[in-house]
């Protein structure tokens, strides 16, 4: 992951410098899109590094939520870059750039395609949620680099098609905006402590209720602490005669949650069917 991040950062800088030297806004836009890849890889690496740090008395979940804070900064940066690219593209459509060095533009685009291909090869065997997200980011940038290369070839064949460069820039800006929008939704989902998108609460409840001795499950809550780390709390109702089997019931329920849904962080309260809830006591 660290090596992939380094390669992505080198490609980003190369595209930014190449775009400035060649006068290609599309290449500069691709550098901006590459920033989303660098951010995605950095977040994945942060999750690994900070996830290994122990919790303390003030941060009982550890430092995993730093990933979300970093993602918020990333979104703000992406929106600023997108706004600048769109503004510059519209200006260039009104007043075409006098000259674009197509050789530099194509050469840097080739570097981008090759570098992204190497990163995709490294990440294809990693099935973690962070790695899969980073893989999709890099795949999108590989497509953008191919588009820039094709645009350079088209303008070389038809010099009168200078409008291709700003149009490609607008397309890449929309791609960045789409990625930023998805990131905003993901951050909002986590901060609202909503149920992870890939989990079905009813299915989780049914799986827990199938454990030996369990009658029902209620007050079930599932939320995301950070990417790939999910938490669950619930009340499990058991027969009165099963109360002495608490450890066995907990082991069964936790094993089911871990095996079926990859939920490791659980807080489960076991209570008998005859247990009187506080609200019921107040009512009587």
TrEMBL record:
Q: Does the keyword Oxidoreductase apply?
A: no
Which residue ranges run through the membrane? 34-54, 66-87, 102-123, 135-157, 163-185
Among the Pfam families in the record, one is ZT_dimer
Q: Which UniProt keywords apply?
A: Ion transport, Membrane, Transmembrane, Transmembrane helix, Transport, Zinc, Zinc transport
Q: Which InterPro entries match?
A: Cation_efflux, Cation_efflux_CTD, Cation_efflux_CTD_sf, Cation_efflux_TM, Cation_efflux_TMD_sf, CDF/SLC30A
Q: Domain Cation efflux protein transmembrane: where?
A: 2-192
Record membrane topology: Multi-pass membrane protein
Q: Which residues form the Cation efflux protein cytoplasmic domain?
A: 197-272
| SUPFAM superfamilies in the cross-refs | Cation efflux protein cytoplasmic domain-like, Cation efflux protein transmembrane domain-like
- Provide the primary localization: membrane
Write out the annotated subcellular location: Membrane
Family, per the entry?
Belongs to the cation diffusion facilitator (CDF) transporter (TC 2.A.4) family. SLC30A subfamily.
Looking up NCBIfam families in the UniProt record yields: CDF
The protein depicted here goes by the name Cation efflux system protein
Origin organism is Anaeromyxobacter paludicola
